[in-house]
Amino acid sequence: MQIIGIDHVVIRCIDVKRMLKFYCDVLGCSLEKSREDLGLYHLRAGKSLIDLLSVSTGQDASARNMDHLCLRIDAFDEPALRAHFRAAGIELGEVHNNFGAEGDGPSFYLSDPEGNTIELKGPASGRPLTL
Hints:
The chain has helices spanning about 15-25, 55-60, 80-85, and strands at about 1-15, 30-35, 40-45, 50-55, 65-75, 95-100, 105-110, 115-120. By secondary structure, it is α+β, with helices and mostly antiparallel strands. It has an eight-stranded mixed sheet with strand order 2-3-4-1-5-8-7-6, with helices on one face. About 25% of the residues are buried. The model is unreliable at about 125-130 (pLDDT under 50).
């Protein structure tokens, strides 16, 4: 497994409209895709994405504002990855097909020793996005 770079970072936010205005109008990101049913907005930041995830004020008191960090890896060899992490005492969840900076592709989640969530994402299925 080789880390290619940061695919995306997911930021939990209470006032998503204010955050969209800041990231788009002030920092210059552009809205690439939205999932309003999930309160999820994918913003293009160069070759990576910043995802804004809307949360309610009741969730804010004890939650961290970074939901997870996604690292783009190559190659996405599921059996080899499972064996590698199992040897380190880490069991991986199911593989999902998730949207990322290059498009939809395989990924799974794990936690670091302090409980931060990390998504490891393989290459996009089909034709990659051109930037």
